[in-house]
From TrEMBL:
InterPro entries: LprI-like_N. Keywords: Signal. It comes from Leptotrichia mesophila. It comes from the Bacteria. Residues 43-136 form the Lysozyme inhibitor LprI-like N-terminal domain. Residues 1-19 form the signal peptide. PANTHER family: PERIPLASMIC PROTEIN, PERIPLASMIC PROTEIN-RELATED. This is Lysozyme inhibitor LprI family protein.
Length: 144
């Protein structure tokens, strides 16, 4: 009976460790996002600061899972992921600029952007980075 109990307990530990790098990461970031949102007010400057803190958090998570994933890959697969990441970074920046440009217009031949430009740019970066972190964490979980 003790052996069965020990086996069940061991199995539960193993299952919980596999259950979730992705869900753990999302939970960490949801907690961080809530904390950041609660600590900043509603001014434009405070919203920009909060967005920057959240983006930094997702960048940290992305870098962490990228390194974990790279540690599990062969040299050939590492090079493939590195190149994929370079393409993703360029696309992320292009998408963010396109989203933010919605807050710009041409006045007397000059491009002028509203106060929403920076917030939209950062929000787009957050969305892309979050999506990429989740994508890579799922790939990492498959290799674990």
């Amino acid at each position: 009976m003790k052996k069965v109990m020990l086996l069940v307990a061991s199995l539960m530990v193993v299952i919980s460790s596999f259950a979730g790098y992705t869900s753990d990461m999302i939970n960490r970031m949801e907690t961080k996002e809530k904390s950041v949102e609660d600590s900043f007010g509603g001014s434009n400057a405070e919203m920009k600061e909060a967005s920057s803190v959240i983006l930094d958090g997702w960048n940290d998570e992305l870098n962490k899972v990228y390194k974990l994933l790279m540690s599990k890959l062969s040299k050939k697969e590492q090079e493939k992921l590195r190149n994929e990441e370079r393409v993703w970074i360029k696309r992320k920046e292009r998408v963010a600029k396109g989203a933010a440009d919605e807050f710009c217009g041409i006045v007397n031949g000059q491009k002028l952007c509203g106060t929403g430009y920076g917030l939209e740019y950062t929000q787009s970066l957050i969305n892309s980075t979050k999506g990429r972190a989740i994508e890579l964490s799922k790939r990492y979980e498959k290799l674990k």
